[in-house]
Design brief:
7-stranded parallel β-sheet; about 10% strand; Rossmann fold; homodimer; alpha/beta
């Protein structure tokens, strides 16, 4: 039988680490004692999320970020996460990365994570894997997702810094980014910046960020400029924020950087921006807040998992089946059924 | 204060129905006594899900299905559901439908449902709204979704019959359908069938259905034909299914029908196929099974909702906050935190 000790993981045993991650991916309870033993260690790694539409060159960018971080002497862990909804074909990012020449580098650990089971569980599993990589001594942990759906957003939210990758010529995908994903980006990248239209994409992203900031600031649907923000302040809009200096406010917007991942152009600057974001977030307390939110989400996910497990055990499982039958037959209403099932659950041991 | 009685809803009071649906949409507890009072009534309506990629003409198709059902003397309820992930712009389907001339028809009730809160909740809320429309005496309840993402799939799963709409010329979207959504379709439509390539799309869908069936039958990656299936049976592949008649097996595949929603062409045939699917599913017990699964999902969703609510009340809320802080600080492991939180939850009243 395969085993895996916390000491092995912490001591750099890659096979122990791989086994632990497999357990976490599968929700195997064997992971629990190992993770509990590893939890005593303080968090050290910087966690970087990378997301963006398919075709934006995320994999190549991650490849070059790995190389840049290695140049600076850091060890790098990579989790390529595919929250495989039935609708993504599922390019196996991790495999692609492994082929790009890091396979023999002991300072790099690359792993694909597939979604087993429910979507909600992917981000919790990813978070646990991040903690395992952290304990194994990796300095940077890159979390890359396939696409930009809701589950991908949930996954990258666990990162300390989120890189949102756009690219010229995807037209509609920029619209996709517009629609709501903007808020999760801490650093924006326009990749393939040697293509026509890169500067236009940069401008579009800036405009979106400024508009979003203006809306937040004063609920006025216009682009934020020093002028419009000053007007807001003059008119007492942006309640409770009249002390905000518009120049400082605009300077606080996430940076937008151009890269050509194929050649590596712009990648050192990107890594610098990521490091700067992390340092700033650490100083302001924003990082602590984000990690608190992450911890809360992970606890809740474990609690739900335990309750789901309890629902599949007797007596809840049997009672649930008969309650569902009564609801389907129309002899019982669903609220009454939920009430009864909760009572059964409360009387049952929850969790191991 | 606005009120709403079960008798009003059951008696055809449209304003009472509208209010009840708003409560269900918002998760307002005022809905509970009304829904409990309505639960005693047997289910009568036939629930039809309509899904497919944006641009496939779903809205026009739904419009024409309404007209066809009205011609046959049936009353029709429509729920246009947008599980608004941040990434759908969210065309407001219900509004578009209302403008198509059913607004003054008392035999038609059209309503858009937005996603408030968590994704998991949309399908449960939709299911509750379907029950409200059923109690209000609508014969057909159409549930239309904006796109074809995971949450849309979850929503249409609650239908008795799912219509999956494809269209020529979307190329990639057919790929999307290929990837995994096929299994939820009970009746396949190739809409805009007056366009070039409609027959090719019909053939592609048939091939996919046959291949999927062949895989299920004998785990052989080839298209199912009477010949290949007979070969499977001869070779003892398709274990335990040697008694299956390949002709009957292929006849059992979901039908594929061409429509031109703009002109109404093919829509009567489509409604006939939907009705036939329903009758067959009722006779075979498949419908009862599907409704049982729906009831189970709805109960579970309510149970999770109650637990979430309990988590936001004292003492769990306070304990959760301090546990999350301990996990984020690294002074406690997440498994221990989940264990403690579960103990607090068990000691706390769950649900109203």
């Amino acid at each position: 039988m395969e085993t895996c000790s916390a000491a092995g993981v912490a001591g750099g045993d890659v096979r122990a680490l791989a086994r632990l991650i497999t357990w976490l991916e599968n929700g195997d309870p064997q992971a629990v004692p190992v993770m509990r033993a590893l939890a005593a260690r303080p968090r050290r790694a910087q966690v970087i999320g990378v997301t963006g539409p398919p075709g934006s060159g995320k994999s190549t960018l991650v490849d070059k970020l790995i190389a840049e971080a290695r140049k600076r002497g850091a060890r790098v862990g990579v989790l390529a996460v595919d929250p495989s909804s039935p609708f993504t074909g599922g390019a196996i990012l991790g495999d692609r990365l492994r082929m790009q020449g890091h396979a023999t580098d002991e300072g790099v650990y690359i792993r694909s994570l597939a979604s087993r089971g429910r979507l909600g569980g992917v981000s919790a599993a990813t978070q646990a894997c991040v903690r395992a990589l952290d304990a194994a001594g990796y300095d940077y942990i890159l979390v890359e997702t396939v696409g930009v759906g809701q589950s991908e957003v949930d996954v990258v939210r666990i990162a300390d810094t989120v890189i949102l990758v756009a690219v010229p010529g995807l037209g509609d995908d920029i619209q996709v980014i517009k629609a709501g994903i903007m808020e999760i980006g801490d650093v924006f990248v326009v990749n393939k910046a040697d293509r026509d239209g890169a500067d236009r994409v940069v401008r579009e992203i800036r405009t979106m960020l400024e508009t979003a900031a203006a809306l937040k600031f004063g609920a006025m649907p216009e682009r934020a400029t020093v002028d419009t923000l000053s007007t807001h302040v003059m008119h007492g809009i942006g309640e409770g924020q009249a002390h905000v200096d518009p120049h400082a406010f605009l300077a606080d917007l996430p940076p937008v950087v151009k890269t050509v991942a194929e050649t590596g152009e712009g990648v050192p600057a990107l890594l610098d921006l990521v490091i700067a974001h992390h340092a700033k977030a650490e100083a302001s307390g924003a990082l602590a807040e984000r990690r608190l939110a992450g911890a809360r989400a992970e606890i809740k996910s474990l609690v739900s998992g335990r309750i789901d497990a309890a629902l599949s055990e007797e007596p809840a499982a049997g009672r649930e089946a008969s309650l569902a039958r009564a609801v389907a037959d129309g002899t019982m209403d669903v609220y009454g059924a939920a009430h009864e099932l909760l009572a059964v659950l409360k009387a049952q041991p929850l969790g191991r």
